[in-house]
């Protein structure tokens, strides 16, 4: 009984964190898209993790910051981003990707339903595989940014100055990080590479011909 109560308390705490994060993200996104922060806050409170997802895909107003930011197109003259903001953005994205699978896994533990572990794992892999390419390929001011990168004010920029499209994002993230990440020690070398590179590029940046710059 004590173990069950502890698991229930831990699950409740993680659900509360996820709910608060959903409210904050939904409010931020709705404000950037020109609808005000209150409607986003309400959607985050009512829809939980679905709220921010709705605002990610919902079209922005023509006068919003989202559409009219001076950084709507990638800028090659922006300063290169440092290593710590890059890692920080990756950690934030990791939390975003893990929220729903983590909740499912906790429910599986509490309800003693092993099948939910598999569902959570498959969902984690799928979200992790597609999350970054879909975010990076967004149009307008958010092009080249994941939620983590947007929060820390950095973006991915193509060497030719064009906007990031899905194919370029897929090369960078799916091939350069996920698939090559199956090679032993590759991910560790990839993460540390910008510390020694004159353009602060990781190996996946070199593959996709991109840099990460301040937004």
What brief labels describe this structure?
single chain; mainly alpha; two-stranded antiparallel ribbon; 215 residues
Structure overview:
With 215 residues, the chain is mainly alpha-helical. The protein has ten helices and two strands; from the N terminus they run αααααααβαααβ. The chain has helices at 2-32, 37-47, 50-57, 65-68, 83-111, 115-136, 147-151, 166-179, 186-192, 203-208; strands at 154-158, 210-214. It has a two-stranded antiparallel ribbon with strand order 1-2. The longest helix is centred in the N-terminal third of the chain and has 31 residues, at 2-32. The mean pLDDT is 83.
Query: What characterizes the major β-sheet?
Result: 2 strands, antiparallel
The end-to-end span amounts to: 51 Å
H-E order: HHHHHHHEHHHE
Mean pLDDT figure: 83
Widest beta sheet: strand line-up: 1-2
Please give the number of β-strands: 2
**What percent of residues adopt helix (DSSP H or I)?**
55-70%
């Amino acid at each position: 009984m004590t173990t069950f109560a502890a698991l229930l308390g831990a699950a409740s705490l993680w659900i509360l964190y996820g709910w608060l994060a959903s409210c904050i993200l939904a409010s931020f996104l709705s404000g950037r898209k020109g609808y005000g922060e209150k409607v986003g806050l309400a959607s985050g409170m009512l829809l939980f993790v679905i709220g921010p997802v709705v605002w990610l895909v919902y079209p922005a107003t023509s006068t919003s910051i989202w559409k009219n930011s001076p950084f709507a197109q990638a800028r090659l003259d922006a300063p290169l981003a440092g290593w710590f903001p890059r890692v920080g953005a990756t950690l934030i994205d990791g939390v975003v990707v893990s929220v729903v699978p983590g909740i499912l896994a906790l429910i599986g533990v509490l309800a003693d339903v092993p099948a939910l572990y598999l569902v959570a794992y498959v969902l984690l892999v799928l979200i992790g595989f597609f999350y970054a390419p879909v975010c990076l390929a967004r149009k307008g001011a958010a092009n080249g940014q994941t939620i983590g990168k947007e929060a820390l004010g950095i973006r991915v920029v193509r060497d030719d100055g064009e906007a990031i499209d899905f194919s370029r994002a897929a090369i960078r993230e799916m091939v350069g990080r996920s698939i090559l990440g199956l090679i032993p020690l590759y991910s560790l070398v990839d993460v540390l590479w910008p510390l020694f590179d004159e353009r602060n590029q990781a190996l996946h940046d070199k593959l996709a011909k991109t840099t990460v710059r301040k937004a």
